[in-house]
Amino acid sequence: MASAETAAEHERILREIESTDTNCIGPTLRSVYDGQEHGLFMDKLEGRIRNHDREIEKMCNHHFQGFVDSITELLKVRGEAQKLKCQVTETNQKLQNDGKEVCLLTSMDELRQCRLQQRNIATTIDKLTHCLPGTNISPSICAIISDPAVFSPRYYPALRTLEQLEESCLPQAGSYRFCGIMSENIPRLRTHIRDVSMSDLKDFLESIRKHSDKIGETAMKQVSLLFMPEESKNTVMCLSLTHIILQIPGAQDLVDFSPVYRCLHIYTVLGARDTFENYYRKQRRKQARLVLQPHSNMHETLEGYRRYFNQIVGFFVVEDHILHTTQGLVNRAYVEELWELALSKTIAALRTHSSYCTDPDLILDLKNLIVLFADTLQGYGFPVNQLFDMLLEMRDQYGEILLKKWNQSFRQILDQDNYSPIPVASPEEYQRIAGQFPFQDPELDKMPFPKKLPFSEFVPKVYSQLKEFIYACLKYSEDLHLSSTEIDDMIRKSTNLLLTRTLSHCLQYAIKKKNVGLAELVQIIINTTHLEQSCHYLEEFISNITNVPPDTINATKLYGTSTFKDARHAAEEEIYTNLNQKIDQFLQLADYDWTAAQGGAQASDYLSDLIAFLCSTFAVFTHLPGKVAQTACMSACKHLSTSLLQLLLEGDVRQVSMGALQQFNVDVKECERFARAGPVPGFQGDTLLLAFIDLRQLLDLFTQWDWSTYLADYGRPTCKYLRVNPQTALTLLEKMKDTSRKNNMFAQFRKNERDKQKLIDTVVKQLRNLIATNQA
């Protein structure tokens, strides 16, 4: 048995024999004789001939019975004419033989009759000769119409044949009845051919609607191969455009355009080209609207966008093919009108659906797909600038999504960090960290392993994330037809947003969150200091990947320095606040006996614990910049001094004895000893002692009872108690006056106590006068 492939080949040859003119059948027959299974083909050919003979006979009997009757009559006449011719020949011979014997008149009469018959015969032959072309053409027309599936490619030749029959053959044949029947059938045959060709066109339109996705996919694949990266080009041996086109089928290979060409020719011949053009364009506009309507869930996956783009590209590839292979069926204005409609609807759909996307990788893939979509259509001559403008709009959305993603990354890094210097046990580990973060410290390099880096893990991790963000911005800017300067500016602005908004907020979050300790705040200051020092490396990194020098005019500068500086200042303020809160917590433990008769020789327990805490805290500040440590120490001492003074003057303390004041003085001396010891290096002389100068002068005034000096020198720049405010002195003195009055019944027996009480009353009066004078 013949294989399916051989049968298919025989079928193709038979169709070619059926649809090819006799003059061009030689190559087809040669392929038969050159091939195998010659006998099998001849059997199949005989079977096909018998089938056609039966079909022709059936259709001719069905549609042209009257014509057949007329032909039969003609054939009968032809037979009679032949007989008549034979009779004329015999008569002529007889006349020749018998002419001599008849009279002249009789011979002439018979001769005239024979001449008349001879002329009639010639006329009949001539008429039959003119009728024969029509009788030969009609069966072929019947066969074409009877089997549209086989003979559809020959509709146009059939129309030409009908035209020849109507304009030439039938007029020459004369006004016979069969000619009238044939003339009446010609319009019906034309209508039938037109309707069948229109049916083929509808099938074609349905076919290209179904194949638009595949056509578009193929066209975009061709463009993707043309614009593939260098490494991919090497893998395919740098294929030329010709090779790519040969490897990947085009629209004409996926769709048979012959129905539209035939229908166009048929309608042109029938004088209805405008009708055909209007119908085709109307149907294609309807299909365009369907193609441009995206699915409601298109934004969920990249494949949804890909199918949408494939259908649009496939639609316009078909229209471009029709534009260049037909004369006027569609024109450039019509195609451009459709493209303007498609462009506006596509951009609107992309804006709507892309707004739902929260995945930066999907946005990036979508951007690459839109670029491929635009490049493909641009290759067919369609303007795509609006698509690239829309991609620039999407860049802002992509940047916002990146910022949200990096916000989570930064938060995770900060939450997981241990805020401790990184221990390094080996040179390999040191090089690994140095590869992540540009850190140079010659002194640390000289130290033996194991050793510690000054910053914690979040420094190299944050720096790596900054570089990853820059790479992500660069990926989006590729293939957008932007200059290097524009790309550099875009990356720098996006990075600035990351620094000033996202990273800054994350650092503020880490600084302000509850339960953050002083050690963590100190480490944050150290970390931000190193990140600030690395900002110029980020500048160089961006310049290297964009090929734009950092000193270019109007180049956007990174705000990393200010970002890390602000974070460091916030951490410093938080340290000051935290220290003050710790001091307040210790002060809440103070339990003075304000009526004690005698003071102790040692500092209060709460103050000793506070001083120990401050010493251990400032010991951690060794890695901080000197100014920060000094400011923190001075702030803590000032706050301690102010808080102690408020503790002494607060309203709840109504009486203060000299013994309590002496104990308070011992505590202040302990604070001064702490300040004099220099808990933080860098203070000049007794600068730190100045934090307690107000307390010291106030306590000296009361413990030495030096009111005469105070009142005499008040207001002078050289006053010994320049820092003592009269109101403060009055408040404390009144508390001591109340204590004296309480013990008045015993004091009246002692002259010194009576004198002291009088002095207190006198000083109180003078202080009030002094305050009144100052207020005036």
From TrEMBL:
Pfam families tied to this protein: EXOC6_Sec15_N, Sec15_C
Domain of life: Eukaryota
Gene Ontology biological-process entries: Golgi to plasma membrane transport; intracellular protein transport; vesicle tethering involved in exocytosis
Entry-linked InterPro entries: EXOC6/Sec15, EXOC6/Sec15_C, EXOC6/Sec15_C_dom1, EXOC6_Sec15_N, EXOC6PINT-1/Sec15/Tip20_C_dom2
Role of this protein: Component of the exocyst complex involved in the docking of exocytic vesicles with fusion sites on the plasma membrane.
UniProt similarity note: Belongs to the SEC15 family.
Protein name according to UniProt: Exocyst complex component
Organism: Cyprinus carpio
